[in-house]
Specification:
Elements (H helix, E strand, L loop, with lengths): L5 H12 L10 H11 L16 E2 L13 H8 L5 E3 L9 H9 L5 E2 L6 E2 L18 H10 L6 E13 L4 E14 L19 E11 L7 E7 L7 E6 L4 E4 L29 E13 L1 E2 L21 E2 L5 E2 L2 E14 L6 E9 L4 E9 L4 E11 L13 E10 L4 E11 L11 H8 L1
Amino acid sequence: MTDINPLRRYCTLLIAGGFIVNQSLAGEPDASRSQAIFTPLLPDVAQPALASGNQINSNNVAHYSRWLDGALDALIRNDKLTISLGPALDFPVHPNYLEATLKHQGEASIDPLTGDISSYHSGRPFSQPLEVDDPLSGLKAAWNMRYAYAPDEIETASFIWQYKDMEREKLERTLKMYGAILRYQHRHTHEPMPEIESNPTDLYTAMYLRVNYPQDIRNTQLLIHRKEQDSASEQAWLYTNTQRRVRRLATGQKTDAFLGSDIMIEDFLGYNGRIKDMSWVFLGSDYLLLPMYAHTQLPLADSPQDAEGYQPINFSGQGNCFPDVSWQLRKVLRLEALPKDKHHPLSKRHYIIDAATFTPVLGLIYDNAGKLWKLSIAAMSHSGFHAPQNATWQGVINDGVSMIDLQANHCTTLQIKSQLSAKPLSHRHFTVQHLRAMGR
């Protein structure tokens, strides 16, 4: 659990996972390359202050400020949040994604005029270290985030949204949903690989959400198609049970509150929009505490078990708005996205990205006046310490999300049980016709 030797961890991963990869990956040169890309060294990880079991609260937060983002530091100082530290933990990377990254290293490029990516095949597009003085580093980081590793076919059968009043410590509303994501191209984990051949509209991914509870919005459904070509128009459809019809969402509606929550459709997965619609600025790297941990080693005694014995994470802090998980030191990259549309409700998004996985774990969202508006926190578990059916996931699993409106003292929390789909996901489940059929 606390072994941080990256080469030993990498070799153990390949053996324990039962995967066969290109023989050259076992050699020292490629192992060293994978270490630099997916297991960055942490200079402060052995600091006694960062030992597992320590807690950060308003009494000692000053000693931890250098490892905390400023927004979190302020919340802790104001007694709205306490952070517990967990053991240092290397996160796995799927061997197929790793092999693709090393095989295609240096092939992808960016058009400096349009921002489009070309010659991308699979794996991480830009695996060389990003430099602040490179004007294309922001775009490279954005594309790395877009093509970060995740399994090709994911279902979220247990997906609980809760709306909470932080000031009054009150739960206002609970929604229960089903979700699924299907990746059509650049596939690493599910056959057919590397792509689904029957893809006439050139999709990269499709996302489907359906509300199962409460009754007043039951069968409300959302379908999002992400095209492979970033310049292609975005497509999203919403089915509402009150109108009993499918309507296509205009671009502006993707920045509205989704179902009355604190979350926009554009917020999904960190950023659910076209890369070309933002100006991307890479601000450099840092070493910060992030909510990354082993799910099965969390204290979940008060969390109810489902039929398979899985226990979702809890939320704590003011209004129960913060993931109650352990945090650990990680190398992070800071990235800003500034909307090009002057009518956009945001002035910028500031991402704190885990450098090893390119997961946007923390997000700071600024309103049109430039004032900090929302804080997003994604709780990320090691897949090897999760539900048994995710043993071959080999990556990070998003256990939960907090979207905290710091101006309104309100939050929306998500409890997420994602898993590898037991059966291949069908393309017909990601069509407008399916929305209509399910709504009948």
